[in-house]
Amino acid sequence: MSDGYPTAERDDVTMSEDIPYESIHCPHCGTTFAERTDACPQCDFSLATLDAQMPPPPLQAGPVNDWAGVLTAEDAQRLIQKCQAIHQAAQAELSVVTVETTTPLKPAEYVFWLANHWDMGGPENRGLLILLALHERRIESEVGYGLEPLLSDVESELIIQEHVVPYLHAGQYAEGLYQAVNALGQALGVKHKATTRKRWRDRFV
Ligand SMILES: [Zn+2]
Questions:
Q1: What is the distance between the alpha carbons of residues 193 and 96, in angstroms, rounded to a whole number?
Q2: What confidence score (pLDDT) does residue 145 get?
Q3: pTM, whole model, 2 decimals?
Q4: Per-residue pLDDT tens for 42-78?
Q5: pLDDT in tens, 7-45
Q6: How far is the CA of 110 from the centre of ligand 1 (A)?
Q7: What backbone phi and psi angles, to 5 degrees, belong to 48?
Q8: Using the 8-state DSSP alphabet, how is residue 27 labeled?
Q9: Among 21, 102, 131, 197, which is most exposed with the fewest C-beta within 10 angstroms?
Q10: Ligand 1 ion: residues within 5 Å (CB)
């Protein structure tokens, strides 16, 4: 874990389909809680805490925002196409951001801050933002409220840990980000299909 790209150390996590909301956690202190609130019950952190430390957030340029300049045009195009395919298949808006550093914020705070200001995934909040922070050697994701029944923050972290971190260790940022989008998109697609099918079944039986 010491050579970078750690994810949260949680060994008590299982991939349960029944308890997605238990994984809501504070980007500042890491406390997990069951219900979404405007401010963390533990440390009183809120979006306003971050706004006070940051300039207005940059505009979102679509699915790929490579501010650290780690992607070639081909890499970016491949990512954009994958994000568009996932949008069609799972009604989920995925977006990728790369930054040199998230200072003065922690990476987990930065991705929370951007995802909230970008209002990703439309009114239903079906957005998922993936952040690569080079200096901090972190990859973080923020799952929109509307997708959490399909994919919790913790599940997202586990998927990234398994499918993506090995590429980042090897310095393969483009491939790591592609695998992140691909694996998260697959997880969302499978669950989305299952819930859509269930809805139809409920309606007709
Ligand atoms: Zn907190």
A1: 24
A2: 86
A3: 0.84
A4: 899 899 999 999 999 999 999 999 999 999 999 999 9
A5: 444 444 344 444 444 567 788 998 887 777 788 888 998
A6: 14
A7: -60, -30
A8: T
A9: 197
A10: 26, 28-29, 31, 40, 42-43, 45
| Short-list 161, 173, 93, CA closest to 133 | 173
Q: Is 36 helix (H, G, I), strand (E, B) or coil?
A: coil
Quick one: three-class SS letters along 96-164?
EEEECCCCCCCHHHHHHHHHHHHCCCHHHCCEEEEEEECCCCEEEEEECHHHCCCCCHHHHHHHHHHHC
CATH architecture group of domain 20-204: Roll (3.10)
The count of C-alpha atoms lying within 13 angstroms of the C-alpha of 60, restricted to the half-sphere facing its C-beta, is 22
Residue 164 sits at φ, ψ, to 5 deg, of: -115, -45
Q: What is the Å distance from ligand 1's center to 28 Cα?
A: 5
| Predicted confidence (pLDDT) per residue in 74-103, tens digit | 999 999 999 999 999 999 999 999 999 999
Residue 94: both structure tokens together: 């995925």
Q: Is 92 helix (H, G, I), strand (E, B) or coil?
A: coil
Q: Determine if the peptide bond prior to 104 is cis (ω within 30°).
A: yes
Amino acid identity at 122: G
Tell me the per-residue pLDDT of 101-160, one tens digit each, with 9 for 90 and over: 999 999 999 999 999 999 889 899 999 999 999 999 999 999 998 998 889 888 898 999
In the reported structure, the alpha carbon of residue 193 is separated from the centroid of ligand 1 by a whole-number distance in angstroms of: 34
